[in-house]
Amino acid sequence: MSSGTGVNPVEAMSEAEEAEALAEAMVFLGTDFEAAVEGLAAAVSEHVSSGLADYELDAMEHIRRVAQNGINLAQNVQGADLAITDSDHESAEEYQEGLEALDIQINF
Question: What is the mean pLDDT of residues 31-52?
Answer without folding.
Answer: 87
